[in-house]
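Structure ticket #2291
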Amino acid sequence: MRKISAILLCLSIVAVAGTAVADDSRTEAADRFDHGLRLFNEGDNLGALLEFKRAYELSGERSILVNVGLVYAEMGRPVEAVEALDKALAQPAGIPEAQVERGRRVREEQNTRIGRLLVTTSLPAQIEIDNLVVGRTPLAAPISVASGLRLLAVVAPGQVPVHQEVAISGGQQAEVNVELLPLQGEMAHLLVRTALPGADVLVDGKLLGRTPLPASLSLPPGPHEVSLRRPGYRAIPGNITLADGSTGEITIEAAENPDDAALVAGQIELDINQSDANITIDGVPRFRSDLSLPAGPHRLSVTRAGFLPFERELTVDKGVSKTMRISLQPKEELRNAQSRRRRNAWITVGAGVVVAGVGGYFAWQGHKDRQAADAAYNEVAPQLVSGASCSKEYLIPGSDAEKACQAKVDRVNSMQDHAKLKQWIGWGAVGVGGVVLVTGVILRIVANSTGDVTVASSHLQPFAWADPQGGGFGVLGRF
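Resolution: structure written out below.
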């Protein structure tokens, strides 16, 4: 289902982009839509849902409502899925036909997972389903509820709260009549905190909710024992006494039970783009990326200095092995540092090109000067006995002719020396420029690799030196 939904979500990008205008609201809507799509593909349904809802508020595009409905369906919330899809499909104009068709099929499928619950009470009361307030009695109509075993709570001032489980069948209506009894004292409230999601919350041995609880539990005043229940875990019960009208808070710790956990375990491997990231599952640090965990929901947190924290809820299936890919995103200061490294890399590349170009020009000029020196030497060569000596028999030592000859020889030697120097400098500069150019390319590749480089873990610095014996260029750094 996720693959099909992802394809349809991609279609909505066209719808958003095609109707977007230049104002800030439209721009933000497009950005939030794109972010929501990325979160959905990463498995963060709740994050994607929030981004899609905000994008719809900003743009009013009904195609985004189809995406909202698809995400709700992926989250196992058929009531909300049908509501969103009904609103979108009521006026399908402007929505791609393929998306409209898919939305209708998903709506029909989700509707089969919805039942109805009619609650009647002896006194007006607040109705909660799975710890969420859904209405007050007397109800004008039955409540639409996702099928399955649901937790019903009936709360009224001055009355003992009633908690019970109700089985809801898809397409069927269940009816519950509740007789409320007077409460001795004033209603109290209890906040239950734990790092373990998906656990049953038991108060005095009775199931009252599942973690994470969206709100406090309404309880009669007095002493209570609170515990958690989930396969693969053991929890230490806690005790608390609530005074009339008070609000209490209790934290329950739960740890894996190795014997039970092995029976219900699944495997998950975290593929993280930062090898030395810190991993926490349900508040417990983990030192491996391949994990065996009890089946069910878990809260994952991945952190690393210089990067934004990654927090997601993941679900492990019994006997199933899967991989979750995580890409930590750099914080602003790290992005700025990378930007500086990229800029420095391009400066280094440019410097290498300039130095190599100037060196090439010098080498070319040296070559031309060498040719001119050789031509000049060929002119004076007939007057030479050996090497640079002008002592032909017809040249009288000390005569003007001998002096002119020697002047030509000295000029030729000077021309040759200067030509050789130019060539040496030119080819040396070409070599240095090449090294600088290659270094700049390496720095650019490294600077562009967010997953492998951080400010703290790597540093590259080009350097050069020169002395009477020569010179050179290199890179100093650490990885």
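Closing remark: The chain has four domains: 2-111, 114-255, 264-326, 332-478.
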